[in-house]
C-alpha cells in the first residue's frame, strides 16, 4: 500500500482506500450495521460494525483511551471526539493524507487533513470548558494502569487554556493529523467530520481535488 500512496499520476490509487492501521479493514465496502455517529459511512466504510460501536464507549478497547482523564468530559464535547474517531476509523476518503507511521500499533497515519473551519470551530466551542492536562494526546501519557493517565507534574485545566484557539486544538491534539483551514463546509476543499449522509458523502470530491 505504501507505494500506491506515494505514487503520483492519476491519483486514483489514493481515492478509495483504508490505511494500514490497528482496526481498519483491508478494503472499504458497505457496512449495514454501523453504529450511532459512524452511520454516515455505512455505504462505504473502512471500519467494521464492532469498531463503530466501540468508538462510542467511554473506555473503548480500540485504544484503551480515557476521555475522562481529568474528570467527566461533557457530552457535547465528547460527541466531537466520537465523530473524530468515526472519521478516522471509517472514512475511505483520507488517502491523500495517509503517511508512514513509526509506531508498533500502526504502519500508517493521517497527516494535515484539511478540516472545514466550521467543524474545527464547533469542536473547540463545545469543548472549551472540558478539562485536560495535555495538548498532544498521541504521546507522553502515563500508561502504567493500562489506560492513559495524566503524567506527573501536569495540571488539569480547561481546553481553552490548553488550546487557546480552534486551530491549536485541531492541529495539536493528534500531533498534526488535522490542518485548520478557512474553507467552509460544502466548498469541496475541506474534509467534513460531520455531514448529512442523505446528501451523499462530500469528502469523496475533496479527496479527488487533493489527489
UniProtKB/TrEMBL annotation:
Belongs to the folate receptor family. It comes from the Eukaryota. GO terms for cellular component: external side of plasma membrane. The gene is Folr1_1. This is FOLR1 protein. Residues 17-192 form the Folate receptor-like domain. Keywords: Disulfide bond, Signal. GO terms for molecular function: signaling receptor activity. The keyword Disulfide bond applies.
